Amino acid sequence: MSSRASASEFVVADAHSYDRRSTPRWIASHIFRYKPLLVTLLIGAWGNAACNFAVPALIGVAFNAIVQPKPDLSIVATCAFWIIISQLVRGGLMFMRNFSSEIVGQRLERDTRDELYASLLGKSMTFHGVHAVGEMMARATNDVHELNLMFSPGINTIIGSAMFLFFPLFVSPGIHPQLILAPALFIVGYFLAIRFYSSQLKPATEAVRERFGELNSRLAETIDGIETVKGASQEKQELVEFNRRASAYRDAAVRQGDIEARFVPLLLLGIAEGIGFLHAIILYRAGLINIGGIITYMGTLQMFGFPTWVSLFGYSQLSLGMAAAQRIRELIETETELDQNPNGHTAPIKGAIRFENVSFGYRDAAPMLRDLSFEVQPGQTVAIVGQTGAGKSTLVKLLNRTYDVTAGRVLIDGIDVREWSMESLRSQISNIEQDIFLFSRTVGENIAFGAPNATQAQIEQAAQSAQAHDFITGFKDGYQTVVGERGVTLSGGQRQRIALARAFLTDPRVLILDDSTSAIDSATEDQIQRAILHAAQGRTTFLITHRLSQIRWADHILVLRKGQIVAQGTHDDLMQQSDAYRRIFDTENARTASAANIPEGIPVPEKIDQPELEPGR
User: Fold this and answer.
1) Count of alpha carbons within 13 Å of 138, Cβ hemisphere only?
2) Claim: this prediction has a pTM higher than 0.90
3) Quick one: what percent of the chain has pLDDT higher than 70?
4) Dist CA 452 CA 614 (whole Å)
């Protein structure tokens, strides 16, 4: 189990839990899900080493049979036969080891990516606001793949080489007890050298992973903002910055390679073989071992060659994998401020909303909203007006817990939003912002994003309500037209009408329109306003807008200035009682007159064919 439970906006039910108290524990808790495969891996590794030792042992026996005054070729033939058999068995065992290792490595990558992706979906907007997308993508793709490589071939070769490492230590005394000296000295020197090598390699591989993340982050940011880059003619500057980060990544990789080039166990291997051969010759001259014993012994020492050579690669891969795992675990373990609260209140929202002395600020920054209090009755429409930066968009994001208040309470139907089940709360609140996000999918799939089981007829009805049906059917593929990422192949007005259709289809109980008609032309706006007016019937609606026609038909108007409510009431009340509201209204009126080329002093009509509204609306 994890050492502590982290809050999350979204949790996937998983039969497996992972120990995140440390990176090695976390990796082990993933790997030990597949114990049968680990057992076959160990059996294959041990059998591979044993079959490999059979070759020098049998050659030694055959050599003794040949050097006799009367060579016994039958012994030689028997040894040759068993060498062939041993290598066939060895091939099967190696396949079993490598197959098991590859399966575990692939599943480790799959499970880690699932865990990380679910974790990222559960992070709050505060978390996503301070973490670069490119950096997270580097961890979710390249770093996760490094875990696969860490196990296979990394850990696989280390386990396999460990069997080769200890076999000479166990079998050499069988030739002569003194011959344990060279293997013992080599193993001691090998582990000391590996310890020193790993300590130097760890910071180098961590730097490689960090520089790669920075490189990927800059690349993703530049591509995402390519229109701004081109518009400002900054291609050369971005290329310079990318090359700078690429150079930093290259330098980190070169540093890693420099450490790998000074791999001391390769030197120790040569020394151990020299000492072992000299020792065996001395024992032979003393009549303590025969020629076959020397050949078997030297063949046994040659087994050190495999762990020595693969360690150069295996421990580098292990270090890279551990560095990647540390980065992934840190991302998963980063705490989020919001909780899914799956056992919280679940009910249809009626739409009664109350703010009680609400304040909000981003982490250590100064509060953006201060001591807000107001009440909205079910079905009312509330317009929020104020200058840029007054906190209008931040206020409505407290309703669906995109952010949580830092003081006070937000209540929906008399219940604090923090006591609602997150899924129940958000599924009944729809927020349409000015910056519309569309997925790189078909138009129909974008409209049905919040209601994936909607029928084609329902999708088209929602599009008609949002005045989007006509332009959609004008496309060659109609509702099957694939839009570019973020909807770049559509105009601003088209994107906003698709977003409106998406909101209408989910039939939310609370509708938030954050300047959602800003990119719509005047003719279309008249139709959209009728659709919004119809959609607002029977549901609580918040309008953040500078459109006079929309402000005037609101039941209640909030005037924000520097994060505080300076006035609230109906349009007529505020025009009489609030200087701040009159200034905002007069400024927008003058702007509208200027845009329409109407001389100052002449009243500006609200809208041509403005729908008749009920009193108070």
Assistant:
1) 22
2) no
3) 87
4) 35
